[in-house]
Amino acid sequence: MDKVQMARQFIEAIPHARDLGLQLIELENGVAVITMPYDKKLIGNPATGVIHGGAVSALMDTCSGAAVMSHPDAPGGTATIDLRIDYMRTATPGDTITATATCYHMTRSVAFVRVTATDNDTDNPVATATGTFTVERPR
Amino acid sequence: MTDAQPKSGGAAATKRMSVKERHALHKRWDQSLNSLAINVPYIAFLGIDFDRRGDELTAILPFQDKLIGNPFLPAIHGGVTAAFLEVTAVMTLSRQYLWEKLENGELDLDRLEKGEVPRLPKTIDFTVDYLRSGMPRDAYARARVSRAGRRYASVHVEAWQDDHTRLFAQATGHFLMPQKRV
User: Fold this and answer.
1) Which fold has domain A3-134?
2) Which of A51, A104, A108, B17 could form a disulfide linkage to B21, CB 3.0–4.6 angstroms apart?
């Protein structure tokens, strides 16, 4: 089984990812695209129906981890060391949110990732994040 | 007339209250803020609960299987940890901000009790440090408002499980405070 297929199986087995309805759209060479459909249970502001920032964070964290695992130099699993999220605007209620993560650098022990989340208005990101991740080596 | 003008009623006179009156006010206040949190679907989805003791607010994340991010360890999802910390930070900051509004008469507790959602601080950025993996057990978090300005606030938040001295995550966030409409 190739690594990308393994990463896909791993992501699809994550209980919380399943609960959020995350769908892996693309996974190749350190780039991952994952979507999260609009769901009423993820609302953060009941007055407006806007999705909670925390749900967007969970999507971006998952997508970043997937990008790391799909990197050609990645030996196996990964865990988040740190993630900084910038919230640019609220996502439009009803829209699916798409995260695109790129693992742009990897050392023996640390992977560096940038990730962007958009709704239907793809030119204006909802949030961006940068993160560092561990590079787990099989012992 | 400006919004800053204290209105009559509300809790403008908290300092002159008797012990009994103050206790009753705190009870109403806790109940209305807890229902404000419960009415946020995402907070209910994660199952986050709040417990205030004196001026200290503890957020509780009871463990559930659906919160797992790594089924092999198993460990709590990093996104859940981030969300838990953020909810705690916003709630702690909002309580402090709304209490000031209540004291100067800008916030009406009756309307809050009826379920009216006040305008709340918005997250600008949030940085999470993952210190160790979250075990499949209940988690707790407390936040400290490092600076509460008129426009921006900075909040630090820490989360732990069995042992308070062994944090599993911490975060710092910046928030935009609700602005008076002009």
Assistant:
1) Thiol Ester Dehydrase; Chain A (3.10.129)
2) B17
